[in-house]
Amino acid sequence: MSKPTWTNPVVRWIDYRLPVFTFANEQLIEYPTPKNLNYWWNFGSLAGIVLVIMIATGIFLAMHYTPHVSLAFASVERIMRDVNYGWLIRYIHMNGASFFFICVYIHLFRGLYYGSYKSPRELLWIIGVLIILTMMATAFMGYVLPWGQMSFWGATVITNLFSAIPVVGQSIVSWLWGGFSVDNPTLNRFFSLHYLLPFIIFALVFLHLWALHAHHSSNPVGIDMKGPQDSIPFHPYYTVKDAFGLGVLMLVLLGFVFFAPNFFGEPDNYIEANPLVTPTHIVPEWYLLPFYAILRAIPNKLLGVIAMFGSILILVLVPWLDTSRVRSARFRPVYRVFFWVFLLDCIVLGYVGANPPEGYFITVGQLATFWYFFHFVIVLPLVGWLERPRPLPDSISASVMAGKGKEAGHA
Amino acid sequence: MSDTAMTAPGGHDDDGTTRRDFLLFTTLTVGATGAALAVWPLIDTMNPAKDVLALSSTEVDLTPVQEGQAITVVWRGKPVFIRRRTQAEIAAARSVKVSDLPDPQPDTARVKQPAWLILVGVCTHLGCIPLGQKSGDTRGDYGGWFCPCHGSHYDTSGRIRRGPAPANLTVPPYEFLNDNSVRIG
Amino acid sequence: MHKALLAALLAVAFFVPQSSSRAAEGPALPAQAWSFKGAFGTYDRAAVRRGLQVYREVCAACHSLNLVAFRHLGDVGFQEAEIKAVAEAYKVKDGPDDAGDMFERAGRPSDYFPAPFANTKAARASNGGALPPDLSLMTKARKQGPDYVYALLTGFKAPPAGFSLMAGMNYNEHFPGRQIAMAPPLAEGALTFADGTQSSVSQMARDVTTFLSWTAEPEMEARKRLGVKVLLFLLVLTGLLYALKRAIWQKLH
User: The complex's ipTM?
Assistant: First the structure.
């Protein structure tokens, strides 16, 4: 990478003292990127953009929101009815949360499919898991703010999870609440933390990108770039590809915002919180349903809580649980099958989480929970040892050429 | 940055380049327009909301105000001074030579009914509330209001006569609904 | 092939409606043909007017409409004078006056629809222990909201043989549990519509549902109007970006 010489004197003056232009040039423009990334690689940058949208809309919503139990619900409705474009900003924020998770989950499963977590990208992967955890906390607290029935009862149920901790559980719960139930102190601190955590996510994203740029993107064939023939500069190739992906994402996101804004929501949250009446059926937002299903699958309270948190934290260990030296599932015929089974398992868990714990949902939920952990603890290491991967191509460019030949053959 | 965009793949020698430059220009223009339009709703949320605008007028019953008395009402979060002037005060306000005033304005341009003087009670200097509404207040050297912050004196028409304030006290938009009630705003 | 499969799976994951136990409790809600359905749907102005009349003359005896101000009626075609007339028909509590007392005055456009009861306890005391819910968001606060409200208002029946109805309750097959404290609110010809429309139960139910859909989603028309423009714009921009992407990547392929 040659250091560019800046012709504009102002740019040169600044860059000499604070090399932001050189940095941007190296990391965003010339930054060598594998030439064979497919569209599944769009979702990382898309998630980053949704984060920015969430922070921007959130800042403006916070200007009108009142974190007080007797005013919160009405202040959100005032945003919807009286604040200029308030309904638009709020619906973008509401649906944006869902799309943030859609992008991040696709990003996560892409990483699982293509083995993006393998050496030397283990830390990159772990930071990603931390981002998801922080996102969940942020989303959960944000969902409490409108102070509807689901807000209140979701907060009650989730904070009560901590009461499962032996000895100190009840003290921790009342510490979380700042009282003896979910009430005004709880709402106030959730508002404060909901405003804070996105900036922590932002910092984590920065670390995530730093780690990414240390060893560059992985790619669909999972072999490293071996020279300039394997890479292309990030700009304009991936800037334009990401921009196109963003256009598609905005079409879908705004399609929901304008024409089905409450699709992802629960009608019960348009009833103001009432501590004396529990809704017939408490469900979290869709993105937490699989974990909710795991929580309910285990009859013991403490073990259920451990399983739920464990189901996320186990992702941290994936780089070591997967014993295969081949990254991409393209060359792993057995793992590929298990990948799809695992994805299906997560969807089943989500479906079970959305339904009341009755009848066959209980059995299905328990089987799916079992499989969730079985996949990580048993399948991943065993398949890595026993599977015979298909031969890898010599290089990225060789695989691109081969792929083209195949396409031409089809056409 | 734009240099890189132009020269990156292939240079200018092939036929696609002009078409691509045109496409790039069009896309950037449309995209920038969209981004600019998208910012507007965010900015507009900070403008007064509909419920705020709906409360932008207030009706006042004038029956209890005796000659020489004043009341203060709140309009758009600010005090509005309503003084029922005596004949002497009206005469004082009208005998001044308008051209001598720092902010020349005849009293007739500042009232709709001579007896009722209605003013936004915010000093035009730095936004303090002048004294002169309550019976024990000092009314300054000209019998109107006196701002204690930096010593501005207003006369019985609310005009600045001495002190740092640059302009007369503002007359809010108002109309008399009948002889005994007025709507401000 | 894999991509298609994955896309299909994700689609299933995100779009499977979350079935609820409530759905199992009554017959399926018949979907009505509402004027405000669809990407270009708007509120039938005449129906909103009639619905307001139904609310004022029937529902308002027990149900509040706390989130709606008279001025909001301007969004659905009420003229300023009409809004004033609606507002002035209500007594609104204001104060304290200079003597420190609360007083009543005629409503103004900036006032909200006054609630029939001072607080929830008073509301319960007057309704045999049941709380008539606020109606501002009703059609948003139930699954298939407008269809539900319509079905509930027209769903009062004699209980089937063997159904044990508690004292003071009424049988309604669309209410969870099938017993509801609310007595059938609408009766054939219960009111005379200002525009001369026949006031059948279904007509009144339909109109008040349209009115309540507006109170729940007053932004809907503006939302859809802006949405069409924004999506068309994005379609063009995304098309351009796709063309640009292809043009830039062309050299590589």
Answer: 0.92
Give the tens place of pLDDT for each residue, A58-72.
999 999 999 999 999
Chains that contact B by 3+ CB pairs under 8 Å?
A, C
Residues in chain C within 8 Å Cβ distance of A74: 66-67
Handedness of CA A143, A145, A146, A149 (dihedral sign): positive
Give residue C42's domain range: 33-65+134-159+208-237
DSSP state of B131: B
Q: Please confirm, yes or no, whether A216 is among the known catalytic residues.
A: no
User: C85-126: per-residue pLDDT in tens?
Assistant: 999 999 999 888 778 899 998 898 999 999 999 999 999 999
Token reading at B95:
């005998």
Closest residue of chain A to B5, computed from CA coordinates: A236
pLDDT of B49-87, one tens digit each?
999 888 888 888 888 888 888 889 888 888 999 999 999
Instruction: Judge whether C48 lies within some domain.
Output: yes
pLDDT digits (tens, 9 = 90+) for A297-314: 999 999 999 999 999 999
Question: Which residue of the set B12, B125, B150, B153 is catalytic?
Answer: B150
If one counts the domains in chain C, the total is: 1
Q: Do the Cβ atoms of B44 and A29 come within 8 Å?
A: no
Which of the residues B18, B50, B62 would you substitute to probe the C interface, choosing the one with the greatest number of C C-beta atoms within 10 Å?
B50
Which residues, in sequence order, are CB contacts of B143 under 8 Å at separation 6+? B89, B92, B155, B156
- Inter-chain CB proximity C227 and A35 less than 8 Å: no
Long-range CB contacts (within 8 A, 24+) of A305-310: A305/A161, A305/A162, A305/A164, A305/A165, A307/A369, A307/A373, A308/A161, A310/A373
Kindly state whether residue C75 falls inside one of the protein's structural domains.
no
Q: Which chains touch A (3 or more CB pairs under 8 A)?
A: B, C
Place B7 in a pLDDT band, splitting at 50, 70 and 90.
Answer: very low
Does residue C142 sit within a domain? Answer: yes
Give φ, ψ of B67 to 5 degrees.
-60, 135
**Contact assignment for B34 to C71 by CB distance below 8 Å:** no
In a domain, C143, yes or no: yes
A170 pLDDT above the threshold of 90: yes
Name chain C contacts of A238, Cβ cutoff 8 Å.
none
Contacts of A344 in chain C (CB under 8 A): 9
